Amino acid sequence: MTEVDAPARFRVGRPRSEACDAAIEEAVLDLLVDDGYAGVTMEGVAARAGVGKATLYRRWPTKEQLVLAAVVHRCREHVVTPDTGSLRGDIVAHCAASLSKLRRHGAILRAFAAETSVNPALAEAFRRTFLDERRAAMREVLTRGVARGELAPDADLELLGDLGPALLWHRLTATGAPLTDDLPERIAALIAAAGK
Question: Does the model's pTM come out above 0.70?
Answer without folding.
Answer: yes
